[in-house]
Write a structure and sequence with these properties.
By secondary structure, this protein is of the alpha/beta class. About 45% of the residues lie in helices and about 15% in strands. Helix 8 links the parallel strand 7 and strand 8 (about 195-200).
């Protein structure tokens, strides 16, 4: 089948490359000529494991190409996917749908023959209705079905998530639309991925509801971590104990500094705003946002307490800046409020991240960046592990200790054991576990 993918951001590029790998003919469209030129040269604008090779192989096979002009790709397409950004709107937290609606108008003018237009961007309930209205207003003769097909990709594991999904949600009640999208996703039948057809508005809400629930699990276990520290329990064992209950499950029960990224914060804010617009108050979801925001800032106080209550004039080494491993994404990363808090307390901050430092410089320009962890900890009064990159799981602790001014480690991801760190001579603080013995 022929597919036009409007937008070459994270969702659009991963989805387009994977569809091409299924054997479809895919054209990715973006208005940013510099980005398109870079993609044609094989330069990938985001860090996602395996994406560069996937794009290269499908470009070589002539199943994937890139352009700035959507006219021909849309006219020839069986399905057109809208995968543009929906950031939080400044001032009120609603999803900014400017790019979605602009794409819909441009698509309308280029349609030729029966076409399914699919919103793959994360959008509030009712957005598909407006997209359909805009298309029919701009091109009354268009033979078009507008569907919703939300994505559920995890950064760092997006290709596997696309090819081996838990489910594929398709929102359309139109039989022709169901057939086209069934054909688009037919290669997944080999993996026995459930294809769930539902009404368009239901599909739109499923995405928001899923993200809100996962964020709630993260926030819940983070609050249990705080309680565990006070009562002398171990939150990792608490998480395992409740996660083995198959009604709860083990995923997203890892205590840490709070959730971030491109999806959870903005999508939850947008869900709350949509609910309020319909006179519904989502008290649990609102609380999740508040607790998460407060937690990120509280991590700076945790570091201060670990070094005796004051950071004035002290140096803190921060390992990991991106919101999670295997991505260079700094959006809503817990490192941002943490570092800001450390600076506000008078600390000097040095940082290292395997791939995220270029993006981090835009968010945190007032700190020193180091090319490797051992340079970062040199002369530091405390080291903080913020992102659980695999590179930080087997550090040379003898070398670390010899480089640091004080042997203090604050592990916000619980990747080490208290007794091991004490044996190496460190004062060690983690999340949701009793403070380790002094080294």
């Amino acid at each position: 089948m022929r597919i036009a993918m409007i937008g070459t951001g994270y969702v659009g590029l991963v989805s387009g490359a994977c569809f091409a790998d299924f054997g479809h003919q895919v054209t990715c469209v973006d208005k940013d000529a510099g980005k398109i030129d870079a993609l044609r040269r094989g330069e990938i604008p985001i860090f996602e494991p395996g994406l560069d090779a996937l794009v290269a192989s499908n470009v070589k096979a002539k199943r994937l190409d890139f352009t700035t002009d959507l006219t021909a790709p849309v006219a020839e397409a069986d399905a057109v996917f809208i995968a543009v950004g929906t950031p939080s709107r400044r001032g009120d937290g609603h999803a900014d749908l400017t790019y979605v609606y602009s794409a819909a108008r441009e698509i309308a003018a280029a349609l030729s023959g029966f076409t399914v237009v699919v919103t793959k961007s994360t959008v509030p309930v009712g957005t598909g209705d407006e997209v359909e209205r805009l298309i029919r207003e701009a091109n009354p003769a268009a033979d078009v079905v507008v569907a919703s097909n939300p994505e559920f990709l995890r950064e760092g594991a997006a290709i596997r998530d696309f090819k081996f999904p838990d489910r594929v949600v398709v929102g359309t009640s139109d039989e022709r639309g169901r057939k086209v999208l069934g054909d688009v996703y037919r290669p997944l039948s080999l993996n026995q991925a459930p294809l769930m057809f539902t009404a368009r508005r239901t599909a739109e809400l499923i995405k928001y509801a899923a993200n809100a629930f996962l964020a709630t699990k993260i926030t819940f276990i983070n609050e249990m971590a705080d309680l565990s520290e006070k009562v002398g329990a171990d939150v990792q064992e608490v998480a395992r104990g409740i996660g083995l209950d198959n009604r709860i499950g083990t995923k997203f029960l890892h205590a840490g500094p709070g959730f971030g990224g491109s999806c959870f914060p903005k999508d939850i804010r947008a869900l709350v705003k949509v609910a309020l617009d319909h006179d519904v108050q989502l008290r649990i979801v609102e609380a999740v946002l508040g607790v998460n925001d407060n937690r990120k800032r509280a991590m700076a106080r945790k570091v201060s307490n670990a070094v005796g209550g004051s950071l004035r004039g002290k140096t803190v080494a921060v390992l990991g800046l991106t919101f999670k491993p295997d991505t260079d994404d700094m959006r809503e990363a817990p490192s941002i409020p943490l570092v800001t808090g450390l600076l506000d307390m008078g600390a000097k901050v040095r940082a290292h991240d395997p791939v995220g430092m270029e993006q981090a410089r835009k968010e945190l320009p007032d700190i020193e960046y180091c090319d490797e962890p051992y340079e970062c900890v040199k002369g530091a009064d405390a080291m903080v592990i913020v992102t659980e990159w695999v590179q930080y799981r087997a550090l040379d602790w003898e070398r670390i200790k010899s480089e640091m001014a004080q042997p203090v480690v604050v592990d916000l991801r619980n990747i080490y054991r208290s007794e091991d760190m004490a044996a190496h001579g460190f004062t060690y603080e983690s999340v949701g576990r009793a403070a380790g013995p002094r080294g």
